[in-house]
Amino acid sequence: MSQISFSDAEYAGKRKRTRREVFLEEMEQVVPWKVLLDLIEPHYPVAGRGRRPYPLASMLRVHLMQNWFALSDPAMEEALYEIASLRAFARLSLSEAIPDETTILNFRHLLEANDLAEDILAAVNKHLARKGLLLRKGSIVDATIIAAPSSTKNEQGERDPEMHQTKKGNQWHFGMKAHIAVDAHSGLVHTVTTTAANEADVEQITDLLHGKEEAVWADSGYRGAPARVPRELQWHIAARPSDIAKLPEGRRKAAVQKREHQKASVRAKVEHPFRVIKRQFGLMKVRFRGLAKNTAHVVTLFALSNLWMARKQLMAMAAVRPRSA
């Protein structure tokens, strides 16, 4: 066992827990570590000639913290040196070597090269399904725009060619879209696709549905969806506000407004994952150039958002102990 450093010893003796420490303690309990490690291990380099690789468990923890706290590769390396709680979570110590930014970058590239982000989301959802948190009887679909830098001050002298601009309301946006489908019962994300920002939401409907749902909720941007899905479903698609406004005042209009309110109360669940990845995890702009790298990043964030949104139920389940015979 390695000797503890003075910094880590001083950290171990402090009393007050910070919000970051509480968050990491909760994630320690709810992340299915063994499942994710078994998923990545076949692709991870083994010890042999050359420098010994860092433990896979430590690199996975570093990667997840990088996503949770919206840190670049250099910022993640510096944070491991500066913040004792991050080192403790990653099971690292200042008395030993700390992964540098290149090592952190290479681990992310390994996940991208083997398309493991989708597998991580699937593994997390399988874990949640075993806990009874994904029922799969209904889906809610929606999309959000994630901005990309519009500056041309780069080596190519142009904006990212895989990102495009689109008009929403009276404002133009440049970037990509994240399309998701969430479980109508729990609000947890089960499917993610990405496109350039100018792609119509309804174009992704067939890729978002998992095939077992009986009902689908969506906003007015999906009005053509039933014609694109070749099976019977209960569709709950919002009407356009302008169409409702044209109705004469009276019982009919009141009934339509009440029905739309009921649809909206269910659709509201799809906004929660967007809030988590944008506000909780800090994804205000795309981090990388190109759609493939950003897709891997976004899918990973939605997998982590599922664990964060379900953390209380998962922790409550873990706290229950079977009665002794």
Number of helices: 15
Poorly predicted residue ranges: none
- Helix and strand run: HHHHHHHHEEEEHEHEHHHHH
Please indicate the percent range of residues in DSSP E strands (runs of 2 or more): 5-15%
Taking the sheet with the most strands, its summary is:
6 strands, mixed
What is the radius of gyration? 23 Å
pLDDT averaged residue by residue: 91
Beta strands, count: 6
Helix content: 40-55%
| Outline | globular
Kindly report how far apart the N and C termini lie.
38 Å
Structural class: alpha/beta
Written description of the protein model:
By secondary structure, the protein is α/β, with parallel strands linked by helices. The chain is 47% helix and 14% strand. The protein contains 15 helices and six strands. It has helices at 6-12, 19-30, 33-40, 56-68, 73-82, 84-90, 101-113, 116-130, 205-208, 225-228, 241-245, 251-267, 271-280, 291-309, 311-319, and strands spanning 138-147, 164-168, 171-183, 189-196, 215-218, 234-237. Strands 1, 2, 3, 4, 5 and 6 form a six-stranded mixed sheet that branches. A hairpin with a 2-residue loop joins strand 2 (164-168) and strand 3 (171-183). Helix 3 (33-40) packs antiparallel against helix 8. The longest helix is centred in the C-terminal third of the chain and has 19 residues, at 291-309. The radius of gyration is 23 Å and the shape is globular. It starts with 5 loop residues before the first helix and ends in a 6-residue tail after the last helix.
